[in-house]
Amino acid sequence: MQRQGFGLSTDYFTDREYGQRPAVSETIDERVWGAIHALIDMRIGNGAFGYRFTEQCSDGDGPCGCDERAFAQFLQAEVPWINWPLIRSEVPETPIVLDLLEFCAKAVGEPILGSYHSYQHHHHMRWDRDAGLKAFVAEVNVLFQRNGVAFKLDINGQAQRILPQPIAHALGWTMFRTGDAQTDSLLEYARSHFLSPKLDDRRDATEKLWDSFERMKTLEPGADKRAQAEALLDRAAIPGSPMRHVLAEEAKMLTAIGNSFRIRHSEVTQVPIERSDQLDWLFVRMFSFLRLLLLSSGRSA
Known about the structure:
By secondary structure, the chain is mainly alpha-helical. The chain folds into two domains: 159 residues, no CATH class; 132 residues. The strands form four sheets. A two-stranded antiparallel sheet has the order 1-2. A two-stranded antiparallel sheet has the order 3-4. Strand 5 and strand 6 form a beta hairpin. The two termini are 45 Å apart. The N terminus is likely disordered.
């Protein structure tokens, strides 16, 4: 592993020879947790978290490191599901680890040593926030990338989910301009929240996507919702054509999915969607269908 400024190179032999490991795992396992545990320990030890949690020299000569007690107290209040001290052999649930990393990212700075206080046996310090955050993000992302973890920290230290490429391509589509502000809001909410690392957020995003589908059925002129929905499909394919028939069947199936599975309703008869990959498939299926309808009806920007 090689230092490149404040970042880390991920250019290992196996990356060059075989390509990077696919980011498919949504679980932070014991191996990655152990490295995260060590990474946090090292930054407590070198005073990097003193950027936010500053220890003051007892002689009144200024900052001299990280106040670990304050770090721990704020951590347990802001991430109340975490145990302190961190236990290397006990891996928290993945969303909690991501919260922990975001907490650390808010606190980190690159420590710059000043004068040496010989009586207290420490250096006085100041911190370079940008360099410290950049280095922390880079190290975390190396751990995730090398272990195929489907998360990353962005440049602000916030956790993001790494989507499979076809999904990322679809969600990167243009802004919504349906002519109805509430439909636009539902679509944008669905897209943005589906990037969340938390499965519950993605379930919520999927619900909003199905809600936007129901609302889109009323955007075209017509005597009632059925006629309006038929008019919208007529914009996407020639009436009576095989493609028009396929689109009508897809609209019926997507409506049935929304009513049968726990997407738009929460009755005990609804079937829950437990697996993330199943949720991905359903979300992309609906999103792609709505994208076609929006493009065909001139409701894209």
